[in-house]
Amino acid sequence: MGYSYPFCYDWSTQEIIDVIKFFTAIETAYERGMKREELMDVYRRFKEIVPSKSEENRLYAEFEKESGYSSYTVMKQVKEAKNGDWIRIEPSGRNAVGKRTN
């Protein structure tokens, strides 16, 4: 990882940690995959810190510019998936949603 995570200087230390956990989960969805429920948990906390849709979109864009990972793509799949599904975004941009088999 050769990039930084987006955050706001007026957030508390715990809020910064929780936002970084969200963006780390986005990375995990691309690199290894992650359970839908786990992604939803970190997203809910992220939304407590960043309730504004415009601020959310700004942070998503900043993170994607730095990392190449699209938070929007991951969260779109999370919202369309069912509980128990495994979310993994393929490097080619194809999305894989389903039960984990290994």
Automatic annotation (TrEMBL):
SUPFAM superfamilies: BH2638-like (SSF158504)
Domain of life from the UniProt record: Bacteria
InterPro entries in the record: BH2638-like_sf, UPF0223
HAMAP family cross-referenced by the UniProt entry: UPF0223 (MF_01041)
Similarity field: Belongs to the UPF0223 family.
Protein name in UniProt: UPF0223 protein M493_05420
